[in-house]
Design goal:
This protein is of the alpha/beta class and 248 residues long. Helix content is 35%, strand content 19%. Strands 5-4-1-11-12-13 form a six-stranded parallel β-sheet, sandwiched between helices. A five-stranded parallel β-sheet has the order 7-6-8-9-10, with helices on both faces. Strands 2-3 form a two-stranded antiparallel ribbon. Keywords: Hydrolase.
């Protein structure tokens, strides 16, 4: 019985619309009893939010199955020294950090943590850069530069801070293998018995490859057949969509 880590956007949904067949696939996996993690780099929504989002599209999954880069960031920071953080992000990220015992502050923080937020502004760049220049550690939820319709994402928000300080953040989300290990710990799973399903060679498949997972690429999202040869690594399996997957 394999553990399954499955991406959301491009695999299960396009924006908030169901990709045909993905509901059947997920419901079959749950009926079979495979341990399931639905994993996203997007740190803005809680597990409950994501459960509602998928439920509205016809995919019914327990809240406990969802794992986000905000959860993985909190998990990462629990293993580091320091418990004060200056946070650029939305409520779901601060919620996870509070749960992990962090104080959210703009007074002498140990960490600057960047996620996604629409309220990003000059003052945030100024404060974050000052703290990092004075020794705060720079952590970001994910390296994605943009989301649907070129909406700015975490990697883009980190760019001005990187330029000012000359320091790059540690990115927790895919393609970092950290988020994969964190998700596996969450379900007490092991890499040799886990498959990851994703639509992006450079995030999902690379993260799985680096973490030693079996990988499944679906071509219903970002990466198409012609993109596979552009990378030096290969997915173990390729399917048109999640509904076609027959190896788990």
């Amino acid at each position: 019985m394999k553990n399954i880590i499955c991406d959301i956007d491009g695999v299960l949904l396009h924006d908030n619309k169901l990709i045909p067949g993905s509901d059947t696939f997920i419901h079959r996996v749950l009926e079979q009893g495979n341990p399931l993690v639905i994993l996203t780099n997007y740190p803005v929504q809680t597990g409950k939010d994501l459960q509602n989002r998928l439920g509205a599209a016809g995919i019914n999954v327990p809240e406990s199955c969802f794992y986000t880069s905000a959860m993985a960031t909190a998990d990462f920071l629990k293993h580091q020294q320091g418990n004060k953080a200056y946070v650029i992000g939305e409520g779901a990220l601060t919620h996870e950090l509070y749960n992990a015992g962090f104080t959210i502050t703009d007074i002498n923080p140990d960490f600057v943590i960047v996620g996604e937020t629409r309220s990003f502004n000059w003052d945030m760049i100024h404060k974050a850069s000052g703290f990092i220049a004075n020794g705060a550690r720079f952590i970001a939820t994910n390296p994605d530069t943009h989301g649907p319709a070129y909406s700015p994402a975490c990697g883009a928000l980190c760019s001005p801070i990187e330029r000012i300080t000359g320091k790059k953040p540690f990115y927790v989300g895919k393609p970092s293998s950290w988020i994969i290990r964190s998700a596996l710990n969450h379900i007490k799973g092991h890499s040799e018995n886990t498959v990851i399903i994703g639509d992006n060679m450079r995030t999902d498949i690379l993260a799985g490859f680096q973490a030693g997972l079996e990988t499944i690429l679906v071509t219903s999202g970002v990466s198409q057949m012609g993109d596979i040869d552009k990378e030096p690594f290969r997915p173990n399996h390729v399917f048109k969509c999640a509904g076609d997957i027959d190896v788990v």
